[in-house]
Amino acid sequence: MPRFVVGDEDFELDGRPVRLLSGALHYFRVHEGLWAHRLGMLRAMGLTCVETYVPWNWHAPVEGGPVDMGPLGRFLDAVAAAGMFAIVRPGPYICAEWENGGLPAWVTGGLGARVRTRDEGFLRAVDGWLALVAEQVVGRQVDRGGPVVLLQVENEYGSYGSDRVYLRWLVQRWKALGVTVPLVTSDGPEEHMLSGGSVPGVLATVNFGAGAREAFGVLRRFRPGGPLMCMEFWCGWFTHWGAEEAVRGAEDAAGALREVLECGASVNLYMAHGGTSFGGWAGANRAGEDHLGALLPTVTSYDYDAPVDEYGRATAKFWAFREVLAGFREGTAGFRQGTAGAAGPVPDPPPAPPVLGAPVVGRLERWAPLDGVVDALGGAESETALPPVFEDLGVDRGLVRYRFEIPGPRKASPLWVLGLRDLAVVTAHGTRVAVVEGAPDPVLIGEVAGPAVVELWVESLGRVNYGPRLGEAKGITGGLLHERQYVHGVRARGLRLAALEEPGASARVPWRAGPGGGPGLYGGTLWVVGAGDAVLEVPGGVRGFVWVNGFCLGRYWDRGPRRPLYVPGPVLREGANEVLVLELEGPGEPEVRLGGVPGHDGG
Q: What is the pTM of this model?
């Protein structure tokens, strides 16, 4: 079997130098029915390797619940079938603009700042995760006939911590589990990041979007020998709700890529194809250089201004990168032959997947109020002195209804919420009085007289995926103040988004026929002729989630930027398609429009 190692200056396959021309593609952000097409697009750009993260919380969202690692194994098999190498980055922390940086809420909820350290409780949980990943990866390493050539230890750890005991433990565990391909770390090209995130004896790589010579210069001062590699060449960027979509010019990005390759380095394009954060899995950041400011949730689309766009189309950046990469393919390898050398001519792009035959307007014939949906599909209601957080209620993605009773009689006084994360629709006496977000803290809701029943419907907009507030709790983390007095006694009930995907969920919802009356769950039918890739819009909707045939497309929000939700062709079927819309704020009945994938610049 081929032997892939870290040489004195290069990666080596059976003793011959190999340059990795890799691109990031997250299998969990692409419908499985489209993996082959997206891999074909990466090959047509000139890449010979694919990199993916592995999200712990996506595979194991519930503590003690079923864990399905099959998608990882099947994706690596698809990479092998495409004749490409694979780089696996299994965390346990991945960042990736993904909910909680990939860490399960059931892990971070009890550990807080002890995550990503040598803490025994964290290591016990991580040990189980590594074993699950190893079951899929070890037998698919290149020296066992598979595509995997590198495995990453943690992720950008130098941007977060400095616990070398923890990093060394990870290295030892991977080796004990049977990983024989080279282990690597990746960090920013700064001394404190490289010194905090690297491990002696493990190859260090760097992440950047420009200035390759300077970045590799820092790496060489830190590590004089071994192959140079940019593990994340940021050819685009992600976008937050309420901000302009990130754009990087094709010529600028191609020039920076050429500089990386002229340094003799291997490269991994981040992202080669971004895809979509389906299912409400998009993460969030905190504003400011200290990453301690206001919450900045990330949009559903993970297009990333990548060379292969969200819909799998070639962009102008694709063609510019293809031209650059074609000149540096000498010295790459196809693992099928197990020999180094040129990988041959760059193939043509594969045929595009089918697209929707004709636009459709969905009929939303039934509606259920939010109270009814939470009571039917939510978890058990708790009653406590202080409000529980999402983690206490077992809610990873979704919302929680908090119900307080203000005693009286008493005059109208200011009502404050302390430690709100993230967004709350507030009602008093059954009437909506405010929509508030948790910054600055505390948040003034308004004036309310007692006695009164006050409800806060709190929605998580995505857990922080980067920085010192990683793993912070969601919901109401402080309490409710009326005038200057805590309101003690709260009933809370959570609704996980995943509850709407369980078998028979729709049948348990207390549907009402006819048009709806504001926030709640809407149901209807999309009659499709010519199933294929499509986009879906919710005119009249303010903020919520959409499911088509039980597949959650993600969050929509009129805050913008305006981008329709992507509907992968394999999700649709000819004829009747069930659509559910969970509208969390809008006053009226939303509409659903299914259309073709929009035109695309650059071919």
A: 0.96
